[in-house]
Design brief:
Blueprint lengths: L1 H10 L2 E5 L10 H7 L14 E5 L2 E5 L4 E12 L2 E11 L4 E11 L5 E10 L5 E14 L2 E15 L3 E10 L14 E11 L4 E11 L2 E12 L8 E2 L3 E5 L3 E5 L2 E6 L2 E5 L2 E3 L3 E12 L2 E11 L18 E12 L4 E10 L4 H4 L7 E2 L5 E11 L3 E12 L11 E13 L7 E13 L3 E4 L4 E5 L2 E2 L2 E2 L2 E5 L7 E5 L2 E13 L2 E2 L5 E17 L18 E15 L2 E4 L5 E12 L40 E12 L5 E13 L12 E4 L9 E10 L2 E9 L6 E11 L6 E10 L11 E11 L4 E10 L2 H18 L15 E12 L3 E12 L7 E12 L3 E9 L13
Antiparallel strand pairs: 1-2, 2-4, 3-4, 4-5, 5-6, 6-7, 7-8, 8-9, 9-10, 10-11, 11-12, 12-13, 14-17, 15-16, 16-19, 17-18, 18-20, 19-20, 20-21, 21-22, 22-23, 23-25, 24-25, 25-26, 26-27, 27-28, 28-35, 29-34, 30-33, 31-32, 35-37, 36-37, 37-38, 38-40, 39-40, 40-41, 41-42, 42-44, 44-45, 45-46, ...
Amino acid sequence: MRRVADIAFATGFVALVTVAAPAALGGGALAQGAAGSGQKAGAAQKPAERLLVEAAELIYDNDRNTVTARGNAELHYGARTLQADRVTYDRNASRVFAEGNVRLTEATGAVLTGEKMELTDDFRSGFIDALRVQQTVELNGQPVRTRFSAPRAERIEGDTTSFEYGTYTACEPCKNNPETPPLWQIRATKIVHNNETHTVAFEESTLEIGGIPVAYLPYFETADPTVKRKTGFLTPRFLTSTALGSGIATPFFVNLAPNYDLTLSPAFLSNQGVLGQAEFRHRLETGSYNLRLSGIFQTTPSAFLPGPLGAGDRDFRGSIESKGQFYINDRWRTGWDVVGVTDKWFLDNYRIRNQSITTDYFREAVSTAYLIGQGDRSWFEARGYYFKGLSSFDWQKEQPFVAPVIDYDKRINGPGQLGGEVRFEANITSLTRQATDFQAVQSPTGYLLQPTINGRTYNLYETCTVFERGRCVVRGLAGTNTRASAQLSWRRSFIDDMGQVFTPFAYLRTDAFFVDPRNSGYQNALVQNIARQDADFSGRVLPAVGIDYRYPFVSNFGPLGVHTIEPIAQVIARPSETRIGRLPNEDAQSLIFDDTSLFEWDKFSGYDRVEGGVRTNLGAQYSVVTPAGWYANAMFGESIQIAGVNSFRRGDIANVGLDSGLENRRSDFVGRVQVSPNQNITFITRGRFDQADLGVNRIETGVIARLAPFAPIDLSAFYSYYKAQPALGFANRREGLTASATYHVTPNWFVTGSALIDMSHYLDVRDNFKTAYASYLANPVGDAPVYSNPGRFYLSGMSIGGGYQDECTTVSVNYIVSPTAAALGTSERNRTVLLRLELKTLGEADFRQNLGTAVTADGISTVR
């Protein structure tokens, strides 16, 4: 035996040892000799796994019928691997005894380590001293390591591990001091991990944060970290507000099948009763959809303002939400995203979240259904929209129902000698609304409703006091408006031997309008005082030809970089736009003239307006790129109306075009300067400057920086200035600062903040005071208004917070001040504290508390 051991030590011996049926191994005298005479009769007929042993030294004790592997012993049984300093296999008892740096690797990748292990010969059962289990799982696309440990544990049939006085955590141990308690862990008298049912049960458990007990549960059971879907309770969510009272939502997840499930989330509220919520999700072969229902029979409706400021006169309130998407084939897909509510305040009052709803300043829910097709060089999209205003200041009768909206875009190579690219674009849009949407400009704003509740008067549903052109604009017409538009275009670029680039182009644009105005009811008839509208059918045809010329001069100055100067000239000839102001304008109200739109063929943002007349666009740009990574770009230019009617000089029913910088024959100058010393820092300035004296009419300037190589800071800061545009309803200039920054104090700790500073808010406050004081002098009832100057730098919105994040924990706290549209013409602000805690693999919880007096948009009548 000693000689065999010496040979094994010298050669790094590898042996095959049978576990249950040694005679079935065959093939090799050494393997059979190792089995000895301890094999059982008939065992040769049973198929079995084989035990592969590798060690520096292998010792056979035929008297005790044992095999001992010493020195980096490694045993393989099927997909399991056992490693230790010393392993003894007792063939009589079919037991494996391992000691010294014992490591057992499962087929799943889980690793069990301990000082001593006593296992059955297939490693499925046994006892382990000083056990530690490490397993890597995927959570939200990121690998997370989980760890169990116990002074002693029992392994049962390979499926269950029972830890006596065990701990569980997903935190990495401290590298410098492994004995330091992890950031969080669960300590329990007994932990039972069942790999067959994928559950972990904790008995007499305590949650410790930094080694300090903070919560106790006599018993709880959860899915193990490898499980993504399993029936059971999810992390509860706590709610608190004056209107709702204190409450808790207890989500219960039901795994109905691998491809569909149900989540029930009742919320028990002390002031309002039980809020029921349910969400059903279903994944099919071609797509997926979900359906979410919410509802409550309120026990204290009076906690909310009465209509039209709130839902205080409703007993039942609820919502229905659904989202789905299905792939018809590799080119076509269809889907929907819809939201329906009993009242506009429900989702916000009961803290029901939906990513399709915007809640930053104007609250709005957009429901849509669509069909989309995409080819190699083509695009088709058909949609329908329903807009639901979720603020007290939104009048639903002014919101349009839009269906259908159909877009088609196809590009092909030009035929024959013509070459170039031919593009066909088409759009069909139809919308309906009940009431015309008016907005006052250069006159006092009027309101359709001015209810007084609890001694306070609220101004709701903005309208005009004087319905005249120039003092009142129309944002949307009542009735049904349908438009069909099509444009066929061609362009081709030619480069001569000198490097000059000539791009001739031509297009033909046609539009057909079918207008069925609604001139009865509400204030609809008053639109005729502002502009005469075409009814029934009307159309327009606009052909155009043009050429774009560019001549880049490029010079390479070696270490000083490559410099490019490029003059650009563009001329477009077409007839004048017709029927300006006589047609609806729903989708072309956003007109921003800057460097990005200077060389656009049509500078309007939508199809309802079309640019006409003969116009030239002139400019030049300069850029430099250095080998060191320095990049700079500058552009400057203007647009000139040569002949025909200037589409921007005559405002339509929404005054689009006026105060845009394009309303004169020679436009304002537009420019841009961008400088990037490296890939981490970018300075950018763009502006519009008066054609006569280069006065600033519009400017945006700022910096975006990631200072990681020098300081762990992400920073952005911008200053914006817009000159007054009285024709569009902006009687005063608009000026402000926005800034945000995140500072990584350490790789784990961070602080973050952002601010929105309104530098012209005091002008609006002053004008509102003048209007209110004039009204008081005309009718001196009640207290006279008091003027309060908010100052030059008004903090309109901000957030500040910080937190900690590592591989197992995320905790953050934020204080948020957000602007909210207010009924009194001034900006009111919501103040919120948000606390979020996530213990990876266990769950997450957040706490939100609003501070200060609620505004009318909340529909809540009390302080919360």
